[in-house]
Amino acid sequence: MPSVIKVRDKAGRSRLLSVNEALAEASRALAAGQHTSALLILEKAVRAAPLNPHARHLLGTSQAGTGNLKEAVYNFNKAVEADPQNAGYRVSLALALLRNNPADAVPHLFAAIDLGSTNSDVFTNLTLILLTQRRDQDVLKVSELGLAACSQHFALLGNRGVALRHLGRYEESLECCRRQLELQAKDARVWSNMGCILTELGRLDEAEEAHAQACRLDPQNASAHFNLAFTLLMNGKFHEGLSEYEWRWNTAGLKSELRNFNQPIWDGSPLAGRKILVHAEQGAGDTIQFTRYLPLVEALGSRITFEVAPSLVRLMTFLPGQHGVIAAGSPPGDFAVHCPLLSLPLKFGTELNSIPPPVPFVIPEEMSEPWARRLSAGKPKVALVWAGSPTQRDDRTRSCPLRCLRPLMSLNSADFFSLQVGERAQDLKIERLSDRVRDLSPFLTDFAETAAALSCVDLVISVDTSVAHLAGALGRPVWLLTSLTPDWRWLRDRSDSPWYPSMRLFRQKTHGDWEAVIDEVLGALRNWLRSVHPTAASQAPNATQARAKLAADFIPCGATVLDLSRGEVALEAFLPYGTKYQSDLPCNTEVSHLVALGVMEYIHDWQAFLKQLCSLQRPIVFSYHPTDFAPTRDQGFVNHLSLADLCAEVYSAGFLVQSSTRFEDQLIMRIQPGQRLARKNLRVLVISNDSLGCQLLHSVLPPTAEVQHARLQTDSLPSADFDLLIVGAGDSLSESLVTDDLLALVRRAPLAVGIFGTEQRQHINQARLSQLLDSMKVWFARSEEDLLLFGKRRANAIHLGDWRIGAFPFTRWTRDETLQAEEELAVRQIQQYRNVISPWIQPFLCALTSAERVAYIEQSTPSGEFRSLLLDIFGRTWPESHLFEFRRECVADYRGKVRRITASMPQLFAELLRKPA
Questions:
Q1: What span, in angstroms and rounded, lies between the C-alpha atoms of 389 and 396?
Q2: Percent of the chain with pLDDT over 70
Q3: Of the candidates 239, 246, 297, which has an alpha carbon nearest to the alpha carbon of residue 272?
Q4: 3-state class (DSSP) for residue 633
Q5: Max avg pLDDT among 104-118, 590-604, 717-731
Q6: Structural domains in the chain?
Q7: What's the CA gap between 332 and 312, in Å, rounded?
Q8: CB 597 within 8 A of CB 623
C-alpha cells in the first residue's frame, strides 16, 4: 500500500503527498467550505490508510457536506470503531444520524458526554430526542450536565423547562423561562411557553399578559395567538378571545384540517334564501356544545347542511329544526357559503352573558324504551365516565384513574353504570369493579345510543368528555370533574357552567389531586342520594328530627355546613341538594353556614359566644327557648332570655335577624353579620319624559332609593331636597329644555348625573349646555355624535348608547306585513311584523330586534336622533322613509356594548354616593 498519494493542484500539476500532508490539506479545504476539493483528496487518503480514524472522520465530514449522508455515517462509524474513546468522532456520527434516524444517535450522544464533550449541540439534540421519547428524567440529568458545561445555554434551558413541565414541576419550569428571557428578552416562543406554564399554575391573569407579549413580539405567530385565545376565553373575555381563536387555522395542529371550498366562508352578511354548509371541527364534544348556534343561523333565513363525524350523524337528526345532516366525507351538495362550527360564536357576538341555551335533543321513544328496560332498578342510577380520548392533547391531565372513583362505589344506595368506551372501558376488569359497576359499552354503538342511555339515568359523573357535553345538552344532572387547568369553556373559579344549566363542576385544587375531588363528590353524592331517595334518619327523638328538618329549610343548596348542635339531631339527613356537612372542629375556611340546635340555652357567657360567632362572618341558624314561649318550663338551662332580650343580644353582638319561625316552645332563627340599614334612604329626583328610560333606571339605582319623578317640560321644577339628581334617563334635550331653571337645579343638586342625547343640535345654546355638563358628575351620552359635538375632552363624558335597546328581547317576525308604528304600541305588537316604519325612536329600536326591514320618518323638524342611532349601530345612515334591510349581528353587537356599560352603572352610582360631592 503506497505511503504517498498523488494529487493535482488547481493548475493541474501532479504532487506527491504523505497521508498526513494530504489530511492537513483536506482539513484546510474543509475549513474553507471546499467539501468537493477535500473529498477528492480524502478518498485517496482513505485508500492509502483505511484504518486511519482521522482520515475516515474527515472523509465522513466532506461526504456530509456534499449531502451523501449514507456514506458519511459509514465512515464516521469506521472512525468510531478505530478510536471509540474520541468524543469528536461520536459527535459527528450522532449529528449525521440525527437527520434520518434520531433514535440511533442517542447512544453516541450519551457516549460523547461520557467522554467529556462540551459541544452544546450534543446536549441540546440529546435532550430534544429524549423529550420526544418522554424520557423526562433523563432530560433533566443531561440538561444539568449541559448547563454546567455550556453555562446559560438558551435552547438547553428551553428543553429542560419542557421536561419539568411534563413532570408537573411548574415553578421550576417557569424559572427556566425566566433564565431564557435574561438571554433573549424578545423571544416570543419563550413568552408563549411561560404563558402556558402560568396557565397550568392557575395564574391566568399573568398567563394572559405573557401570551399577549408573545403576540406583540411576533404578530404572525399563530400558536401564540391560539394560546392567548384560550387564556382570554378562560378569563371570560369572549369578545377578544373568540377573535384570537380564529388563529387556530394557522397552527400546526389544525392547519391541515382547514376546509377548502370554491364557495367563500360566511362573513356574517345576510343569509336570507342562501344555503350554508356548517361543518363540525375538532372533537365530538365541541360539535355537541356548539349545535346551539344552528337555530340562530336558521333564524337568519338560511337553509343549513350540517356536516358531522359519522358517529354523530344519527344523534344530530334528533335536533329540532329544518337542517340536513351529512357525514364528513359525503358530498355536501349545493351551498352558497360555508362556516366552521366553532366560528359561529364569533359571528353572533357571543359574550359571557349572552351564551345561547343548549338545543335539546329529542330522543325517539323507540330508542329510549329499550334503555329504560335495560336500566330498570329501584335505586338511583349514576353513570360514570373517567377517561377521554387518548389522542386529545390534554388527556393526560383531564382523565382520571378509575381507582380514584372507588370511594363512590361504597354507597350502596345507588346503582352505578359505566358509559366509558374505548380501551379504558377495560379498566373495570383491571380494577375488579365489574360486579359493582355495570359496563354499558357494548351497547353504545354511536352517540345516539349514548343519548338514549343518558335519558334513563339520574346523574352523570364524568371527566371532561363528549358524554359530559351530551348530558348537559340533554338537561341531565351532570357533575364534571376537572383538572386544575381545564379547557377554556369551563372558565375559572366557579362551580356552575353558563353553557349547561344542569352541570356542576368539581375542580382540582392542586395538580393531579383527584382524591380531593372525589372526596368532595362523595359528600355531594351522599346529600344527593338523600334528596332523591331519603333514608331513615338517625334514631333521635321525633321532636328533635322535626326541629332539624325545619332548620334545614334555612340552608341554601351548595352550602358547606358546620353543625355545632348537641347530640344526634339528624340535620345531615335533611340538608338540601349539593350541601356539604361537617360536624368536627376546627371550622375550615370553606364552611359557609353554622348551625347550633339545642346549644344556646346552655352557654354561660352568652354575649362573648355570640361575638365570637360574629367574627366568623357567616350566617348562623340556631334554636332557642324564649322564656315568654314557655315561662314555667325548666329544663336546666343556664341562661333565660325573653324573645325581646334575645333579639337585643343578637343585635348587640353585630348580627341582623334575617328570618325566624316558631317550633313548639322554641324559636328557630337565621342571623347574619351586618349593620342595621340607615333609617334615611337615598332620595333621588329624576327629571325625564321617558317612561321606558325611567323603568331601566330603577335597575341601576341602589335598592333603598326613594325616587321622585318630574317632567322636563314642567315650568316650575321641584324644589324639594334630594341626594341625587338624574337628568334625562334616556331623553334627548333640545333648545327649549336646556333652560336656566334646569341649570340652576343641577347646580343646586348635591350630585347630578345626566343620561341623555341631544336633538335639533344646531339650535342648542352650546354655552348653556356646556355649563350644564360641567355641573354634572357624569354624563352618559346617547350617541357618538353627542360625544363628538359636546363631550370633547370631558373626563365626565361616557358614550353609553341608547340603553333602551336592552328592554327588547331578540325574536323574529311572524306576520309578513308592514306596520306603521305608533309611539305607545306594545312590544309584542311591534315584534310581529316583518317591516316596521316608525316616526318614534322607541318603536324603531324595538323593531331592530325582530323585523327584517325598517324605516324611519322624521318629524316636521328633523331631530337628528335617527341619524345618530344608525351611525352608532351600523356605521352608516339610510334615507328617511326608505325601508332597508340590516344585519342583526350589528344590533346584537351594539346591544352588547350598551349592556356592558349598563352593567357597570350600579357600581358607579354606589361609588359616587359614597364619595363627598
A1: 10
A2: 93
A3: 297
A4: coil
A5: 590-604
A6: 22-243 (1.25.40.10), 259-354 (3.40.50), 367-531 (3.40.50.2000), 537-625+642-657 (3.40.50.150), 683-804 (3.40.50), 805-905 (no CATH)
A7: 16
A8: yes
Q: Which residue's entry shows cell 457536506?
A: 65
Alpha helices in 184-293 (DSSP H): 188-200, 204-217, 222-234, 238-245, 284-290
For 116, the grid coordinates are 467529556
Report yes or no: 405 and 517 within 8 Å, Cβ to Cβ. no
Euclidean distance between CA atoms 614 and 618, whole angstroms:
7
Per mean pLDDT, which range of 62-76, 206-220, 378-392 is the poorest? Answer: 62-76
- Give the tens place of pLDDT for each residue, 523-566: 899 888 877 755 433 334 577 778 888 898 899 887 888 888 86
Give how far the C-alpha of residue 833 lies from the chain's centroid of Cα atoms, to the nearest Å.
38
Strand duo 381-385 + 724-727: pairing = unpaired
Residue in 811, 842, 816 with CA at minimum distance from that of residue 828: 811
CA–CA separation, 516 and 530 (whole Å):
22
Question: How many residues are given for the chain?
Answer: 917
- Amino acid in the structure at residue 671: I
Of 3 and 326, the one with more pLDDT: 326
Q: Are strands 381-385 and 459-463 parallel, antiparallel or unpaired?
A: parallel
Backbone angles phi, psi at 253, to 5 degrees: -70, -30
Task: Output the average pLDDT for the chain.
Answer: 86
- Residue-wise pLDDT for 887-902, tens only, equals 888 998 898 899 889 8
Q: From CA 832, how far away is CA 848, in angstroms rounded?
A: 12
Residues 6+ apart with CB under 8 A from 80: 53, 86, 89, 90, 93, 108
pLDDT tens readout for residues 727-756:
988 888 888 888 888 888 898 888 999 999
- The string of pLDDT tens digits covering residues 437-450 is 999 999 999 999 99
Residue 767's CB: how many other CB atoms inside 10 A?
8
**Tens digit of pLDDT for each residue in 521-531?**
998 998 888 77
Spatial contact of 836 and 847, defined as CB atoms under 8 Å apart = yes
Q: Count the neighbouring beta carbons within 10 Å of the beta carbon of residue 217.
A: 17
Q: What are phi and psi of 744, to 5 degrees?
A: -65, -40
